[in-house]
Every structure is written in structure tokens, then in C-alpha cells.
Amino acid sequence: MIAGKRDDKKLKRMRLVGSYSFPSEPDPHPCGQKDAPDDFVGIRKSCELISSRPRDNVTRCPEKSALKKKIIAVGSAKGGVGKSVFAANLGVFLSSKGFKTVIIDLDLGGTNVHLYLGKKSLLKQNINDFLKKRVKTLEGIMIESEYGPLLIGGGNSELGAANIGFIKKMRLIKAIEGINADYIILDLGGDMSYNSLDFFLRADYPIVMTTPDSASSTGAYHFIKAALYRKLNRMFGPESKFRNERNIDLERLIHKMLIPSDGVEVSTIKELMEKIKEQRPLNLPLVTKIISDFKPCLVLNKVLKDNNSHHVPLMIQDVARKWLSKEVVFLGGISTQPVIEQSVMDQVPAIARHPKGEFAVQIEFIADKLLRDK
Fold first, then answer.
1. Which residue from 177, 19, 2 is spatially nearest to 96, judged by alpha carbons?
2. Please, which contacts does 270-275 make with residues 24 or more away whose CB atoms are closer than 8 Å?
3. DSSP 3-state assignment of 101?
4. Is the CA virtual torsion 117, 77, 359, 362 positive or negative?
5. C-beta atoms surrounding 189 within 10 Å
6. Cβ(295)–Cβ(204) under 8 Å?
7. What Å distances lie between residue 215 and 76, 188, 197, 319, CA to CA?
8. Listing from the earlier edge strand, what are the strands of the sheet with 150-152?
9. Helix, strand, or coil (residue 301)
10. What pLDDT, on the 0 to 100 scale, is given for residue 368?
11. What angle do CA 94, 43, 212 make, to 5 degrees?
12. Is the pTM value of this prediction over 0.85?
């Protein structure tokens, strides 16, 4: 764990909500709920394994002196899943451990993360001031929050604030990557726009937030799929480190298979790789690396107590494995709790108000799993 010591009751709650390890067999019913006793046997066994693991063997967060700046992005396919609350509280947690943490509100059309850090109105200076060159640096619009993390607010009070062009977006990404901090948390918009996907893909730790709701969980998979497709289709774009290796024939092949016309069925990533191996074998290592470098993570929010939601991360993992040839790392779950709802209304981070409560334990578990071995 990152720091601190949990008592037995909190540890048990953590295991019930956020410590599952899932079987690798594909889900025969990927689009809906199912009874899967075999899956739950695997989950029960993994929980028993975690219960028997010595606490001292848990990998700890790297020492502050050895830490390199890391970007964490929190995205979702739709709004209302709780990503801004999660991003704010994760920032408070990391800051409480002594890390210089910056939270950036990149939901440019619906900024709200400032509300969950005690700022009751839009910040006087925000992302729009940087994009319109009224300030030269992001540090010029960075403010301190009373709960630890630094904050760069979004701005949705100007017409078209969410629709930034490519050049402005790349300037913003470069500025984000230049911020002097241990962790930079990006709270993205609840959509699958190119802007959200491009910010998501620049993160060292890309997290997709979902709830047990079927529309939300299906959207989470499609967000991961859209991000991977975007990554492949932009592999030679001006923002890519592989831009000097551009191969037009490979570009056309990827586009043809992933964005087909005339009603042709979209190929799986496995089929794409087989086609590249057949037609462009010299390019196979590059495409393999690009796919391998994409490591999406998943957080399940709003889990009702005594409600079986195991099928949600299982479904997303199985479908991603089948169609995208990707392993989606399930970081853990966050249960629905009155203290979270109250903190949202009061505009106070729940983890600051209840630093040893159930929500804090769940955030710590997720952060520990996210950052270990990095």
C-alpha cells in the first residue's frame, strides 16, 4: 500500500469492493448480465489469496525522491459516473502523501472539478486564458486548494470552449507535460470526442470510470476501443513520436480494417495484426509496440452494497480481450456511500473529511494498485 495502516474491518470492506482478480476465459454473453458460478468461484479464490497475503509484502509507492512525473487521466463515455469526484479525491489523497499533485479540469464544456475542492464558483483564470494566450503558462493560472492539490480550472463560460482546434490542443498537451509536479491528474469530459481521447492517450495511467449501469459499462468498453483505434490511426500523426517513420500503405491498411466503408464488419485487432503480418511484415513490430504501450485501467463506481456487480468488469475485460487483444486492468470499486453524496453537496472532498473512512480505504487501494511497480 502507499502509506498508512488499515484496521481489519476496513481491509475486509476493501476486499469486498476493490480487490478482484478475474479469470481469463472469454465471456459467452458479452452484452448483458449472466449467471456465472464458475466466474465467482474464481473471484472467491482470488479474494482468499489476497486475504492470506502478508501485508508487509504489498508493493509500496516509489519514494518521492525517485519519482518521475506521471500523468493520470480519468475519462468516461458519458457523464454522471463520478469521475470528477474521483479525480478530486485521488488528488487529495496523493497530496496528503507528500506528492506535488496538480489537477487539471479538461472537461472544457462542463467544468466542475473545482466544486469538489471547495471552490464554489468558476475560477477567475482558467484554461481559456491559456488557450487564448492571455497567460503564457499553465502555472500562471494554477491556484492552491485548501485540501492539498494545485488546481487548473476549466472554463465553460465562453462559447465554443469545448471545441479547441488541433494546434491549440497540442500546445496545451505540451504545456501539461511541462508542468513541474509528481502527479498530474486530468479530469476529462464525459464523451468520446477526439479531444478527450487525445488527452487520455497522453497519460501514463489512463483510467476509464464506469458504473454498474449497462449503458455506462457498455460505454466504458467503447471508450477503450475508440482510444485504441485513435492511437492506431494517429500513429504517424504530427503529435506522434513515430511521425518520421510514416508508411502510407500501412496507414491505409489500418484505416481500411478499423474504419471500413460499405457496411463491411469492423475487424478485430487480432485480424488486423494477421493482415499486417501478411502484407506489411516489416511494420509488425512497430504496430505491436503501439498496441502494447496502451494499458487502460478500469474503476467501477457507485457499487451498491449487497448488489452483485462482478459481471461488469468481467464483461468489459472479456470483450476487450476478444476484440481488442487488450488486458484491461481492473483497479477496484467504490461503493455508494452517504458520506460521498454529502461531501458533493457540501463541496468538501470526502477523503479530507473522513481520512480513515471506507471511501478513503477504497481510494488508497485503487491508488496503490495503479502505481505499484511503475
1. 2
2. 270/325, 272/232, 273/325
3. strand
4. negative
5. 22
6. no
7. 11, 19, 19, 15
8. 143-144, 150-152, 101-106, 183-190, 70-76, 205-210, 297-303, 329-335
9. strand
10. 94
11. 65
12. no
Q: Give residue for cell 492571455.
A: 134
Beta bridge partners of 102: 150, 184
Q: Identity (one letter) of the amino acid at 289?
A: K
* 15-41: average pLDDT: 36
Q: Encode 135-194 in three state secondary structure.
A: CCCHHHHCEECCCCCEEECCCCCCCCCCCCCHHHHHHHHHHHHCCCCCEEEEEEEECCCH
Question: Which one-letter DSSP state was computed for residue 27?
Answer: P
Q: Which CATH number fits domain 67-214+303-312+335-371: 3.40.1280.10, 3.90.190.20, 2.60.40.2890, 3.40.50.300?
A: 3.40.50.300
pLDDT in tens, 294-350: 999 999 999 988 777 888 999 999 999 999 999 999 999 999 999 998 888 888 899
Beta strand 150-152 with 143-144: parallel, antiparallel or unpaired?
A: antiparallel
The upper half-sphere exposure of residue 191, i.e. CA atoms within 13 Å in the direction of its Cβ, equals: 12
Calpha distance 199→176 (Å, rounded): 10
**Terminal Cα-to-Cα distance of the chain (whole angstroms):** 13
Q: How far from the centroid of its chain's Cα atoms is residue 74's Cα?
A: 4
CA distance 228 to 221: 11
Q: At which residue does the C-alpha cell 500500500 appear?
A: 1
Domain boundaries, the chain: 67-214+303-312+335-371
User: For residue 192, what are the contacts with CB-CB under 8 A and spacing of at least 6?
Assistant: 77, 222, 223, 226
Report the candidate in 245, 259, 251 with the shortest Cα–Cα distance to residue 276: 251
Cell of 18: 476493490
